[in-house]
Fold this sequence. Notes:
Blueprint: E1 7-14, H1 18-28, E2 32-33, E3 41-44, E4 47-56, H2 59-69, E5 75-82, E6 87-94, E7 97-104, H3 105-112
Antiparallel strand pairs: 1-4, 1-5, 2-4, 3-4, 5-6, 6-7
Amino acid sequence: MSHKPILKVYGNISPVSEDFFTELAAVCARALPASRAVPVLSRDGDTAGISFEGIWFPVEELLKTLSRCVTQAHTGRLDVLDMENWRLDRCVIAQGTLCASSAPLNNVLEFSGL
C-alpha cells in the first residue's frame, strides 16, 4: 500500500565510521516510507546518505544520534520537508556542531528561483 508522502527527509554526513553508520541505520529502520523501493539509508565510501519520502520519520531520534556522534571532522546537512505544514527544517553539520534553521517552503522556492 502506498501513501502520499507528507514528509521528505534528505541528507548526508561524512566521514562516517562503521559504528556511526550502524547507529544511523538503527534509527532509519524505524521510518515509515511511502515505498520500500529506495533504501532510506545508503553509503558511498565514508559518506552516509538519507533519502526518505513517507508518512513518518524519527527526526528527533536522528538529531539526538547526530548530536551524540558528530565530531569536528564531520560535515553534512539534513533537510526535513514537512509537506503537510509546508515547512523546511534544515540542520547543517559543521565544526562539531548542529545548526538548525526553519523556513516556509514558499520562501525556499522563491530563493531558489522556482
